[in-house]
Amino acid sequence: AELSNILRQMPKAELHMHIEGSLEPELIFALAERNGVSLKYASVDELRRAYAFKDLQSFLDIYYAGASVLLTEQDFYDMTWAYLQRAHADNVRHSELFFDPQTHTERGVDFGTVVNGIYRATQDAQEKWGLSASLIMCFLRHLSEEEAFATLELALPYRDKIIGIGLDSSELGHPPEKFARVFARCKDLGLHLVAHAGEEGPPEYIRTALDLLQVERIDHGVRCLEDAELTQRLARDRIPLTVCPLSNIKLRVFDQAKDHNMVQLLDAGLVVTVNSDDPAYFGGYVNENFLQMFAALPLGKDHAYRLARNSFEASFIDQPTRQKYL
Length: 326
Ligand code: ES4
Ligand code: ZN
Fold this sequence. Notes:
The model has no long low-confidence stretch (mean pLDDT 98). Helices cover 50% and strands 14% of the residues. It has helices at 3-9, 25-35, 44-49, 56-67, 73-89, 101-105, 111-129, 145-155, 180-188, 203-213, 228-236, 245-250, 262-267, 279-282, 286-296, 301-313, 319-325, and strands spanning 12-18, 92-99, 132-140, 164-168, 192-197, 217-220, 241-243, 272-274. The chain has an eight-stranded parallel sheet with strand order 1-2-3-4-5-6-7-8. It is of the alpha/beta class. The protein has one domain (3-313): Metal-dependent hydrolases (TIM Barrel, Alpha-Beta Barrel), CATH 3.20.20. Bound molecules: 6-chloro-9H-purine (ES4) and zinc ion.
């Protein structure tokens, strides 16, 4: 079969996707209208034209502005349902969704409104397609440790709807150790742990995420190759990297698809997975990430199979279910 068809059709898991990053400009405008929220962009086209990023921060500023239209449980449902339809079309069988509660609670939106809306959409996807989806709550690293602890308190009544904890937003200047105590508390609660590290930040942040936060996966992690000892450790301990190729190009971590270090990461024996990060902002959902990487780099059928297998191995699906996919 044609490689592009294999990539599209193979069952896969998506492990690094910010649900607020799946808000398409059309839905942003529809929700703004429905909720009477005013945007500083006059039209869908004007908003889309603003999607020219020079680095992570320039993206985050627009991403938080986009999320400001989300107010009701139905808004969170509609956003999540739109993503799950796209994921299903890409043959995603399991998805682990990041959400950023602080982006919403800071605007006066109730924590339960956020979780209940997202969660109800995941239940409908399970029922309709057998697509399983679980939620990973992220702390915004530009906010304080105290604010992360307060957010964890808000989450406790919804503990059974959340499988894990992540760390996202501005990486430089906000090293993992800032959140060591709150991550330790989350570990005691039996939550899975992940963190963004080594996207714009140095390999040192990957090491401290492992040693001080005790994370099980690294989100991005592409800068690990600058440190040979760290790379060997990630390979030996089979710590997965949730790599987001189109994100890396849009945020200027790499200039072009052909410059991405995906092949070197795979050759180093790392458990690499392919993910869409913020698909509405970075030019495509998970299959588009696969297609563009495989078009630009010397990758073939065996790599496709390995990346799909890695996505299930690296997932937090319960062990018996995971075994079915491996
Ligand atoms: C993010 Cl690409 C990326 N990095 C860090 N934080 C984020 N939140 C949403 N997308
Ligand atoms: Zn991310």
